[in-house]
Amino acid sequence: METEEEKPIVLEATNGIPLSKTNGGFMLAAFRVLYRRLETECLMIYCGLSENRASVFVRIHSACVTGKVFGSDRCDCRWQIEHALDLIRNHGSGILIYLPYQEGCGNGLVKKIQLFDLTDHGVSLDEACSRKFGISKVALITNNPDKIQAALSLGFEVDRTEHYAHEHSRFSRVL
Known about the structure:
By secondary structure, this protein is an alpha/beta fold. It is 26% helix and 29% strand. The radius of gyration is 16 Å and the shape is globular.
């Protein structure tokens, strides 16, 4: 059972604004959250939440400067975001939560580069890595059991998971 200290507290939230004029109806909101004594910010890209749906697609996505900013082919993070947004758009509703301070799944840049080095030397990535809208049930877009557990610990019921893999990357199992 979670203690009060382990429950996230929203300290500040912005109103949703259109992400862009050509993005297919996605909205953008920012949150400042206190979780496990750490204050952090996250972004929420969403659409279709005003409609009454039984389940909402949710993708929790960690930052990735190597893949999304510098175009590294060592990961498929850019593809993961694009695919998640396509699934959400096609479903008609959903949320992508972007964690800008969770580089390398929360391990940081130094450990991420060290992991890349290990994979260059034959170690598999699996071995190396060893409410504002009143949503309670989600269909989580991930292959990562830690993100499923994180959603459960935040009080969401995970209705189902949407697993996917990007065939062009040997790192696609880390979603």
